[in-house]
Fold these 3 entries.
Entry 1:
Amino acid sequence: MTGPAALRLGVVGAGGFATFLSGALRDLPDVTVTVVADPDTDRAGRLAGTLAARAVADWQALVAADDVDVVVVATPPARHAETTLAALRAGRHVFSEKPLATTEDDAIAIRDAVAATGRVLVVDHVLRYNPVLRALARLRGPRFAAPSGCPLLGPVRRLAFENDASDEDLGPEHWFWDERVSGGIFVEHGVHFFDAADALIGATPDSVQGILGQRPGSSLVDLAVATTRYPNGALATFAHGFSHAHRCERQLMRIDFGAAEARVTGWIPVRATINLWTDDAGAALVEHLPARAGELLAVDGHRLRDPAVTVLVHRHAGPAPARERGRPRELPHRCRITLDLGGEAAKPYVYAESVRAAMHDLVRCVRTGERPAASITEGVRAVTVAAAAAHSARDDRTVHLGQYPEHHTVCTS
Ligand SMILES: NC(=O)c1ccc[n+]([C@@H]2O[C@H](COP(=O)([O-])OP(=O)(O)OC[C@H]3O[C@@H](n4cnc5c(N)ncnc54)[C@H](O)[C@@H]3O)[C@@H](O)[C@H]2O)c1
């Protein structure tokens, strides 16, 4: 018996990320690339040649082609909306590189087109498909709760993402620096982390503040910081500085769960360390985590290689009674949990597998009618928050977000 036919992909844009993405999908049997479009015909030809696909110069010809089921949008951001809208209206499913669009209006137009056409759209928010972040979200949910129903990790109170990123490959002519093409740092890059924070916190922000910094002696904006507030009282800050040599790149995500703190390293997370104080039920849950490593780290379509969940439980490390936020707690046991996908060396593999898992999700949803993890909802929301951060920085005021999905942003001082 043969399975369903592979979905035929048309890749629009044959640059750096399209090349990486095509490599990541190479052994995903559910998809095959049939066409590559790029006005730079050398690039289109080179990528198509490695995939046994044909090359065209014109993206509209690709969207109209009979042998394309899914349009992969991998052009610079300002071109995403027009291509995505045309693809949806031509009846194609869409795998959109992030950001979904560079403006909230365009993102909402795409949302309306997805609703009208019933096509599946996945936005390549790779962090939604990262096993470490998936595990952290699970540890504050019901699956890893004590018999009393109390989850191992409390709700997120604060999240801070520090991203000292490299500009070594971003010469002054690169489209990244042109806000009309990239949407600016919050939109081009920040969307990944606004969306990851939503997944970790389990809520979406109700207000946003942004501030931007310029390279000394230049008008080039290379530092962007945003703070978001969530209806459950959590706050998050996101700092992105594209001003470092490759060798000086460093990223840290710190998440405060009250009695627990998680530190995640790498912008593609490959390792997390959680230090926590807990009660008897919590210590028992921690002790069982290594045996549940597969369940904890599972992401459909992401093939884990050498995952390790290690724990250290120091029972009765302190007196049991404690107080936080005015409430008594029993916290006698100190624990450490480490989630490891293979350390820094595993980053390219984990990155590629996350892209693979995102495409696997699209295929699954085309076949089942279910909703992807990084759907149009997440795509629109991330663009909305990013655009609000940029808006806030420009106008020097807090931006309050209306209730999704009707949110056009409302500015108040
Ligand atoms: N998901 C991720 O982790 C991730 C990582 C890096 C980049 N990206 C995204 O991927 C996209 C592409 O980035 P990149 O680094 O590959 O850029 P790039 O500049 O290397 O490549 C872009 C390509 O698009 C082509 N192009 C421009 N206009 C076109 C059009 N109208 N039709 C067809 N092709 C066109 C260009 O000629 C170029 O070859 C961006 O949206 C970027 O944000 C995502």
Note: Confidence is low (pLDDT under 50) at residues 403-413.
Entry 2:
Amino acid sequence: MRGREVLIGVSGGIAAYKTAALVSRLVQAGAGVNVVMTRAARHLVGPKTFQALTGRPVATALFGRGAHPHIELAAAAELLCVAPATANLLAKAAWGLADDLLSTLLLSFSGPILIAPAMNTVMWQKAAVQRNVAQLRADGFVIIEPEEGYLSCGMRGPGRMAEPEKIFQEIASHLERLKSTA
Ligand SMILES: Cc1cc2nc3c(=O)[nH]c(=O)nc-3n(C[C@H](O)[C@H](O)[C@H](O)COP(=O)(O)O)c2cc1C
């Protein structure tokens, strides 16, 4: 993991607070980490948290820092992982919509993209969401399945984001695979 470059996308799910543990784990393992947050994600966790953990500014805007942030961030990374991925993010990715920095990066990044969905059970089981997940798999995205368990809305069921350690291991094994095919 030392010296590897990872891009983490955070969309607006309550599990965004767990992504701080994932980012910390990656940094402690020696990776360089850039974090991109959607507007909704920034309502749930402050960018300063990720800035402090990575030692790098957090990217939030397409028309902000840098001339072409969607190109520059994509070029710097070996792997992109979105955690948590909202129902909205899944839909945008499945349809190729690009109306903010994170969704544009999903199109401008050419390496492996791992997606860790997280949402309420009713949302997760909706036909539209399942259709989008199936489309993303068919398009080559790696879906890190959500788990069953306690959800912040008080329900129990499928939809809980995979644990940060599980996501870390998925990232590590994909980076390892990239190294052996380089
Ligand atoms: C407190 C709170 C928690 C939310 N948690 C989730 C969630 O876990 N999963 C999800 O798909 N949407 C969740 N939402 C709804 C999304 O934030 C909303 O659909 C938003 O438009 C997603 O935007 P984004 O995909 O650009 O981040 C939550 C909303 C609120 C207010």
Note: Residues 5-181 form a domain with the Rossmann fold fold (CATH 3.40.50.1950).
Entry 3:
Amino acid sequence: MAPTPIYRPPQQIMPEHDSLRRFIFEQLPVQGRHVHLDASWQAVLERQHYPVPVRSLLGQAMAATALMSATLKFDGVVTLQIRGNGPVHLLVVQCTSRMILRGLARWHGELPGADLGSLLADGRLAITIEPSKGERYQGIVPLEGETLAACLESYFLRSEQLPTRMWLTADNECAAGMLLQMMPARQKDPDAWQHVTLLADTLNQEELKMLSAQPLLQRLYHEDDVRLFEATPVAFRCQCSRARIEVTLRSLGADELQGILVEQGGVHVDCEFCGRGYDFDKVDVKALLSVNSLVHTTDSRH
Ligand SMILES: [Zn+2]
């Protein structure tokens, strides 16, 4: 029997899964990034059931953090952290410059609405950039915009970086986004910036979700000369380890750890990002406390 032919839809109309692509305008001092998260986003959703507004915010934050990490010129990690006084009190996303991503959100009670103001109430957005070598940088802005993209744009404005805009979207299938940024060094060109951003503002959520970088840029900038670079794969992976959990436990101090041992017979820690469990019995705790003085140089990130 002849094998059934497999229908393959044309590549350019299918979103490229879990990939990030950089592009530049040949004649304009503007560059951009496009990201589409699929399995990497599903990996986050498998670990926690999120109410729709929280899911949407977290997915947009994942896309945004991937886009920001892709603008790093060095090896490092970008952490986007939101703390609020509303039902969503914590949201953390991390992405390395090698496009390894993880994220989580914490909320409690009923969600009064889907808008940022009611979800986060006086929220603060912190962006931390940690190069693998060199100084760590942190910028904090109040969450005043109506969308996460607007808040991030005000972060870029306040941190005196280059004019930057983002378009973000997320649902239960995928998270996607596009970033445009003025190029450094070259002369400022406000007309070019207005031209590319006005066209990008015509993008709708559906197009952002459904289109790969190539047809999306074709749809927006068919009159401009845009060069699109090779795709970089993006993946979900947690960098937690027993060693990093031990550093966190040591920071609790001996009294606190002894208290937990007496109460629970052992110490159990679940990584919030990936759900992996770590167990420490009395002997383990004694051992990790006894090397307390030797750990100053250990990486405290977990
Ligand atoms: Zn983990």
Note: The pocket of zinc ion is lined by residues 238, 240, 271, 273-274, 276 (CB under 6 Å).
